[in-house]
Specification:
Blueprint lengths: L8 H32 L1 H26 L1 H10 L3 H36 L3 H18 L2 H13 L3 H24 L9 H23 L8 H7 L4 H32 L4 H37 L3 H37 L8 H35 L2 H25 L4 H25 L14
């Protein structure tokens, strides 16, 4: 049992598999959302990805600032300071409340972005409608991230998995009812998909909140008053390390959103095939996020226990786990890409199936190639964040994205390059960013960072 606490492969797997299933459930939910919308209309599937990305972009910074309270929980758990875990979560909940008015103010910003890009009128209208409903769902996300961090940071990832799967199942069941209508429920199209998503997200928060108030440090009113009291030094420390964490995600999603908008200026076949390939890619990407979270938890717990050697071992084992997963994806998606692509082909598509299949197959091959490098970005990025090295992650990955990838992307578009060339620019970006994180991890400077101070104060 002692070995399981020192960053072994077994510990990584034990923490990771519920998170992998939870993230897979999230990806499957979005996959089915897009599948339903692709059969509802070609306009909806073209609008779904840009609207979803903008909705995620406006929440990314705030959500990942408060989510960093979970890293504090992991380090406090490694130090054996249970009351401090609860106090960190209490500050995360206060910060989540502060996010609500900011999220509401972000809605006009999202509308402005869609107007700025100027997609076709029908697509633009669908983007705005879908974004508005997703913005409502966003209100639940900071609270969900904080609550999830309390349980996953202490290694209770199974509960997080159950809550996420429950919310995802609710979303999937409600999708066809709200999209096409049924009985007294009116047909809402793409808005219905957003409403189903919002209900699923608030259900996840409700399940985790009930579990939280059954935990020892939240079970009585007196204890809740202690751990939920505003503690400015701890809250500001979470913000200090959380802002780079959120900034990294914001830059990552923001540049990816720019990429998606650029593809929207291409012919309809290329735009649709790119969006559909990204929807399939989400099935690969999301479980990797679960492994990245596990790396952050394992490294955080070991660093909280002042065991940098165990933290390094945990990061390496999580990396191995990530690469094993990608090899599985290469076999499954590479072998079954044809029927997967066919699932998304809408009957009303204005382009031939043969052209769509040929292009989609090439794009799938590219994202399977970049998945190998994305393991470095996601898993080692998670490991470095678990140690508190958030500033390097945001400056390196964000710098590569803004200073290297974006100029090359716009140059290729200006030269009239195809969607395949544009996708290859992303492959190069992921490879360079991942290589830098690997060098940082191997150098070991992160081992000297002290995220938590007095764990028992």
């Amino acid at each position: 049992m002692h070995a399981m606490k020192r960053g072994t492969f077994g510990e990584c797997l034990r923490i990771a598999w519920p998170l992998v299933l939870a993230m897979t459930g999230n990806a499957l939910m979005m996959f089915i959302d897009r599948l339903f919308l692709s059969h509802y209309s070609a306009t909806c599937i073209q609008a779904a990805l840009p609207a979803g990305l903008v909705a995620f972009m406006v929440i990314a910074l705030l959500q990942n600032i408060v989510a960093y309270s979970g890293t504090f929980v992991a380090q406090y758990a490694g130090a054996g300071a249970r009351a401090a875990c609860a106090r960190a979560t209490g500050q995360g909940l206060w910060l989540s409340l502060l996010c609500v008015p900011l999220l509401l103010l972000s809605i006009p910003l999202g509308f402005w972005l869609f107007d700025l890009v100027g997609h076709a009128p029908a697509v633009l209208a669908a983007e705005k409608h879908y974004f508005l409903t997703l913005a409502i769902a966003n209100l639940a996300l900071p609270f969900g991230a904080t609550l999830s961090g309390f349980f996953s940071g202490r290694g209770q990832t199974l509960l997080v998995m159950v809550a996420n799967i429950a919310g995802n199942v609710a979303n999937i069941v409600l999708d066809p009812l709200f999209i096409w209508g049924w009985g007294p429920i009116p047909e809402m199209g793409i808005v219905g998909a957003g409403v189903a998503t919002a209900i699923g997200q608030f259900l996840i928060v409700a399940i985790l909140a009930v579990a939280l108030f059954r935990a020892p440090h939240f079970a009585t009113r007196r204890r809740r008053q202690v751990v939920l009291a505003w503690k400015r030094p701890l809250a500001m420390r979470i913000v200090r390390f959380g802002v780079p964490n959120g900034g990294h995600i914001l830059l990552d999603v923001g540049t990816f959103t720019v990429f998606t908008f650029v593809t929207g200026w291409l012919p309809e076949l290329e735009f649709a095939a790119s969006n559909i390939a990204f929807a399939i890619n989400q099935l690969v990407f999301a479980p990797l996020m679960g492994i990245g979270l596990a790396a952050s938890i394992v490294v955080g717990q070991r660093m909280g226990d002042r065991d940098p050697a165990g933290a390094a071992r945990g990061g390496r084992n999580a990396l191995i786990l990530g690469w094993l997963y990608v090899l599985l994806c290469l076999a499954v998606i590479g072998g079954f890409h044809a029927p997967i692509l066919k699932l998304f082909y809408p009957a009303s598509a204005p382009f031939p199936y043969a052209d769509y299949h040929a292009l989609g197959s090439v794009l799938i091959a590219i994202f399977l190639a970049w998945a190998f490098f994305d393991v470095l970005n996601i898993v080692l990025g998670g490991a470095l964040k678990g140690a508190g090295d958030t500033r390097f992650v945001v400056w390196w990955v964000g710098g590569v994205a803004v200073a290297l990838w974006m100029p090359i992307l716009f140059l290729c578009y200006a030269l009239g390059c195809s969607i395949v060339t544009l996708w290859l620019t992303m492959l190069g970006y992921v490879a360079v960013a991942g290589g830098g994180l690997l060098l940082r991890f191997l150098h070991g400077r992160w081992k000297t960072i002290r995220l938590i101070q007095d764990a028992h104060r």
